């Protein structure tokens, strides 16, 4: 009987604690930028996650910038957050990272990325993993088969369009391309192998839940993402064990580099593979999609790019892959890529800084 009577009081105490812990940062930090924290626990996360066109800021940022200015406070992913859409402040933050500022993703996202992810760790651990990432880029570019692998994957993706009646979603095809290239270079897996399709399916589930409301209840995107990450981890660990048993130390991929080092635990190696997928998947596919989108708006530029490519291709044998020297000749194509980067980064830069939780260390 006493327990039944005490239950309402316990629930009321928990509710008051939740409300106070949510709004207390507003009261204790009067110098913080203007803004709103929204509802307890949920904050303004649902509004922030509302889909919008990729060439706009979205209603959440547009509304808050007009009401509070280009720097405002909010409550996103269960975390008090300062959101900056100011170019000069963003540049200052990036220039002073690890000195005045420490940038990281909100804590609930750590549950998906894992404690060993390069996006989560800080200080010396981050530097160590970053150096390995640079080793990946360097070793990959030095491989004689690198450009040939990319060209074969591109031809495979384009070849799969035959018979679809022209009905394809290009951004999805660009994602398949980016994923296939990364998996080939990191794990040595070709697009045709069943394990590649299995990793892709889990990775898509992972990506859907990465930027979602962090509610770990079975069936939610967040919970599915955590489970997908565990399955990817299990798959990659299985590949690592197979390599060790077969003593395949001379395979031509970056997993060989990871296996040859004793500096990382198996969990860190798995996280590094996932970071490689995460780092190149959205960025590369978005860049390719934006190049195609912008070329579709200008028949003249599209014609110039086609002429440049056809001219270079005409100097090669039918089955001969393009070389690094051939790509260096694509001067106009490089101008198109640079312009797409310039236009695309106007949106991407703002989105990235809006997501990050900026903590001032001074």
Provide a descriptive summary of the structure in words.
Its cofactor is heme. It comes from Aegilops tauschii subsp. strangulata. Keywords: Heme, Iron, Membrane, Metal-binding, Monooxygenase, Oxidoreductase, Transmembrane, Transmembrane helix. It contains 15 helices and four strands. The chain is mainly alpha-helical and 362 residues long. A two-stranded antiparallel sheet has the order 1-2. A two-stranded antiparallel sheet has the order 3-4.
Keywords:
Cyt_P450_sf, 65% helix, mainly alpha, Cytochrome p450, 362 residues, 2 domains, monooxygenase, two-stranded antiparallel ribbon, iron, oxidoreductase activity, acting on paired donors, with incorporation or reduction of molecular oxygen
Q: What order do the helices and strands come in, and which of them pair?
A:
Layout lengths: L1 H27 L16 H4 L10 H10 L2 E6 L2 E6 L2 H9 L5 E4 L2 H7 L9 H20 L3 H14 L10 H18 L6 H17 L10 H26 L7 H6 L6 H31 L2 H15 L10 H5 L2 H25 L1 E4 L2
Antiparallel strand pairs: 1-2, 3-4
Helix pairs in contact: 7-8, 8-12, 9-10, 10-12, 12-15, 13-15
